[in-house]
Design brief:
The chain has 71 residues and is mainly α. The protein has one domain. Helix content is 58%, strand content 0%.
Length: 71
């Protein structure tokens, strides 16, 4: 199997590709695009000694919200 990245310049080309997929000649998969923020977050987590758990993050968020709304 060979994978290609194709930029579609004409909308008619997309319908042709869909027809080829219907004939089971090709398979169309959408590429998941990583955001710059997500890449930064992944890089920081990879270098961190310990990452906070979901519960720790939730607790911190609740504390900040409580402090904000008490004012």
């Amino acid at each position: 199997m060979e994978t290609l990245k194709i930029d579609i310049l004409n909308p008619k080309a997309k319908s042709l590709l869909k027809n080829l997929a219907d004939l089971k000649l090709i398979r169309i998969q959408k590429e998941r695009v990583k955001t710059d923020f997500r890449e930064l977050l992944d890089r920081l987590r990879k270098n961190a000694d310990n990452t906070p758990s979901f519960e720790e993050i939730t607790k911190e968020v609740e504390e900040v919200r409580k402090a904000r709304y008490e004012k």
